[in-house]
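tool=predict chain=A
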Amino acid sequence: MRVDSRSASVVAFRTWMLKGLVDRRAGHLGPLAVDVERTHPWWRVMCLTGVDYFSTLGYQPAIAALAAGLLSPIATIVLVVLTLAGALPVYRRVARESFAGSGSIHMLERLLPWWAGKLFVLVLLGFAATDFMITITLSAADTSAHAVENPFAPAWLHGQEVPLTLLLVALLGGVFLRGFKDAIGIAVALVVVYLALNLVVVVVAVVQVAGHAAVITDWWAALSAQHGNPFVMVGIALLVFPKLALGMSGFETGVAVMPQITGDRNDTPENPVGRIRGTKRLLTTAAVIMSGFLIASSLVTTLLIPQQAFQPGGAANGRALAYLAHEYLGPVFGSAYDVSTICILWFAGASAMAGLLNLVPRYLPRYGMAPQWAAAVRPLVLVFTGIAFLITWVFQASVDAQGGAYATGVLVLMTSASVAVTLSARRKQQRWATIGFGVISTVLVYTTVVNVIERPDGVRIAGLFILGIMITSLLSRLRRSFELRATSVVLDSPATDFVMADADDYDVIRIISHEPDEDTEVEYRNKSRDERRYGHIPPGSPIIFLEVYPSDSSDFEEDLRVRGIAKHGYRILQVTSGNVPNTIAAVLLEIRDQTGLIPEIYFEWTQGNPISNMFKFLFTGMGEIAPVTREVLREAEPNAKRRPYVHVS
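tool=predict ok
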C-alpha cells in the first residue's frame, strides 16, 4: 500500500507539473494565452506591456546619470529622438506585417528559408532570452534596492540585496507555478498608480528647479567647462547614448501581445485592420508617455541630485526619482512611491517571465527543437527561475552591472526588427521606406555595436543562452526524429476515393512508395513491374503510388494535404513535405483510420552508405526511407497488429 501511495503521489505530481497551460486556439502560447473572444481595449493591453516599459523609470534616470554624467539630459533627448523617429515607425510596420503576435522574429523567419532561417531565429531567441531574463533579475534587484534604501527599512536588511532578490525571483516563480491569471487587470492598476506618483514627483521637482533657477545656470556652466560648445556636447551625447538604451524596452512586447487587443467586428484572421490600428495606438501612446517622462526625469534628477549620489553605494544609485520623492515630499509619500515602484518592478519581472513562456513554445516545439515538456508551463518556470538565480548570484544583484546585458538584448531585437522591415520594404519596391528604414537600421547597428564593445556582458550572457538553445535544440531534434510530425492529414476527394475503392472492392490497400523524379509512363510501368515481381504483389491486385515532394526540411510540424491524381493510367497520391519517411508513416496511419484496413507499403532499398543516409535524413528529410518509416510506425503504433506493413525489396 505504501508503494502504491507513493506511485500515486508521483503520478499526481507529474500530472500537475506537465499540465499544459497552453491555448493553441488563440495562436498565442503561454500563461498570457487567452481565448480569441477574450480581448481587451488597446489601452488596457498597453498597461500590460507598460509594467516592463514604464517600470524602467525606477532605475533609468540613475543609470543615465551614471553613464553620461551632466550630459544625461542631452543624451536622453537623443534617445527619445531615436525612439520616436526610429523604433516607433519600425514597430508600427512590424504590427502591420506580423499581426499574429510573433513579432519581428517571425518576419525574419519568413525572409530566410530552410535551416538558415531556423538557425537565425535560434540566435535571436538567445538575445530575446537575455532581454527577458535580465528584465526579471534586474527588476528584482532594483526592487531590493528600493526596499533596502527606504528609511523605514530595518537596519539588518542592508547588505542583504542578494538574498532578497533571490526571494523575489522565487516568489515570481511561485506565482507562475500556481497559474498567472488576470494579468491585465493587475497591470492597469499598477501602471495608473505608478505613473500618477511619478507625475507628482516630476512636477514637484520642476517646481523646485523653477524656484531655484541657479541650478540651471550652474549645470550649464559646469557642462560648458567640461565639454566646450553645444556642438561638442551633442557629439559626445551621440557617443554615450547607447548606454541609455534601457529606456527603449517594451516595443517587442508590444507587438507580441497583439492577439489580446480588441479589433473591429469585420476583422478577419488574414486582415485584422482594427487590431493593427489598436496596436499602433498602443505603441505610439506608450512611446510618447515614456519619452516625456524620460526627458523630464533626466533633467530634474541631474539638476537636483549631487553627482556623487549616483555612484555605486550612493543614495540615488538605481533610484533617482525615489531619492527626489523622499527629499521633497517626505518619508510617507516617499515610502508610498517605493511601494509602488517595488510592485511594478516585481510585476515587470512577471511580464518578462510571461514573455519567455510565450516565446519558447512558439518556436522551438514547432522546429522539433525542444523536449515535449516544453509545451507545459511549469517545467519551463523552474528552468527559467533557476537561470535567474544563477544570474543574480553572478551579478550580485547589481542594477548597474546588469544594465549592459539588458541593453544588449533590447538593442539586438530592435536592430533585427529594423532590418526585417527594411528587407520587407525593399522586397515590395518601396524606395523611400527602404531608405528610411535603412538609416534607422544603421543607427541601431551602431548603437548595438557600441554597447557590446563597452559592455560585453550582454553578449556573453546571450552567447550562453544561444549555446544552450543550440545544444538543447540539436539533442531534441535527434531524439524526436522518429516522431510523427504531421499535425493533421487531409485526403482530398480523389485520394479518398482511391483508398476507399480498394478497401471496399478488394479488402486490401497496397501502396508503392515512388520517388517523383521522372514523370513518364515508362517510369511508372517499370516501377509497378519491379515492385510486383520483387515485392511479391499478387497479380491483378490494385496498387496506388505514393509520392512525397520535398519542401523545407527544417520544418518539423506540418499540416499534410494528400492529393489524388490519375496519370499515365495509374492512381497516385501526392503530398508535399519536408520529411519523407515521417510523412509516409502519417499518411499510412490516416488511411488505416479512414478505411479500417491495415495498409501495406512497398519500398526498394536506398543505395549508399547507411551512416551518410542517416545524416541525410536528419538534415534533408530524405536518406534511408524504408527502415526509418518502419521505426516511425513502430513508435507511433505500439500494437503490431494495427501497424501498417512495410515491405522492402
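The beta strands are 486-491, 510-513, 544-550, 558-567, 570-577, 600-603, 645-648. The chain has 22 helices and seven strands.
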